[in-house]
Automatic annotation (TrEMBL):
Domain of life (superkingdom): Bacteria
Family: Belongs to the binding-protein-dependent transport system permease family.
Full protein name: Peptide ABC transporter permease
Membrane-protein topology: Multi-pass membrane protein
Alphabetically ordered keywords of this record: Cell membrane, Membrane, Peptide transport, Protein transport, Transmembrane, Transmembrane helix, Transport
Matching SUPFAM superfamilies: MetI-like (SSF161098)
């Protein structure tokens, strides 16, 4: 065969891109519990957004002719001791849980991100003092720290968010700092210092993007904890106050007095809290497995 007849190029088959459905099936096979948790999270968010459409009754309206009515066709999950529809209050309580959980988690983790990266970057006495202060905050359990914050700031939705946010800050800062310490020693950070970049530019452009994986993992873990903390504070009468629908308040009113005569008053709010926390924990574990290269490679 003549040289001119030789093929001048070799055609290679382009890699086929997976469709969205194929990618979803692949993730579902590898992380079935994570997909289940994600479905619970999405369902809870949609329920919170469209609570006014989903709830058949006003969650604060009292029906004096239907005190502790059992579940049925009129009231799907029954009514509480004040004649309020349990299903409607659970749906609107999801709005309170989602709002408090996401705001407290994002703000607490965001402040922890800034403090953790700054402490790792500057090091020295700044890092030493910062870590000792974080040790003091972390020596208290979350619920004890939240109770102390409520005692200082008071009750109400906004106060509960602050009370839950503050205990999250040192926990996120400690995790982010451990990752940022290794990033600080990277050659590109030294190169940025050598050409005169400011501390702010180095932190924002070179360090923060490289600690986003643990930051996102902490947010997903914090949401479930925040929902449980909000319910605990409301159950104790130190969180969200009436007439705002909240799952903890529903337990406070019926968990003990109506455990035998009207158990649905406490069972369904308790199931809502359990399912929400369980869903966010499963979803957080899946996010951790996907973002952690050590676990992803296994």
């Amino acid at each position: 065969m003549a040289i001119s007849e030789l093929p001048t190029s070799v055609e290679t088959a382009a890699p086929r891109r997976r469709t969205a459905w194929q990618q979803f099936k692949r993730v579902a096979r590898r992380q079935p519990l994570g997909v289940a948790g994600g479905a619970i999270v999405i369902l809870m968010i949609l329920m919170a957004i469209f609570a006014d459409v989903i709830a058949p009754y006003d969650p604060t309206a009292m029906n004096y002719s239907a005190f502790t009515a059992p579940p049925g066709t009129e009231f799907w999950l029954g009514t509480d001791q004040m004649g309020r529809d349990v299903f409607s209050r659970i749906v609107h309580g999801a709005r309170t849980a989602v709002f408090v959980g996401f705001v407290a988690s994002i703000v607490g983790a965001g402040i922890g991100l800034v403090l953790g990266v700054g402490s790792a970057y500057f090091g020295g006495k700044i890092d030493l003092v910062f870590q000792r202060v974080m040790d003091i905050f972390m020596s208290f359990p979350l619920i004890i720290m939240a109770l102390a914050m409520v005692a200082i700031f008071g009750t109400g939705v906004d106060k509960v968010i602050v009370a839950i946010t503050i205990p999250f800050i040192p926990r996120c800062a400690r995790v982010v700092r451990s990752t940022a310490l290794s990033v600080r020693e990277m050659p590109y950070v030294d190169a940025a210092r050598s050409i005169g970049y400011s501390h702010t530019r180095i932190i924002l452009r070179h360090m923060v993007p490289n600690v986003m994986a643990p930051f996102l993992i902490m947010i997903t873990a914090f949401v479930g904890q925040a929902i449980l903390l909000e319910a605990s504070l409301s159950y104790l009468g130190l969180g969200v106050q009436e007439p705002t629908p909240a799952w903890g308040l529903m337990l406070q009113g019926g968990a003990e007095l109506y455990a035998e005569s009207a158990p649905w008053v406490a069972i369904f709010p308790g199931l809502a809290i359990t399912l929400a926390v369980f869903g966010f924990n499963l979803f957080g574990d899946a996010v951790r497995d996907m973002l952690d290269p050590k676990l992803r490679s296994q």
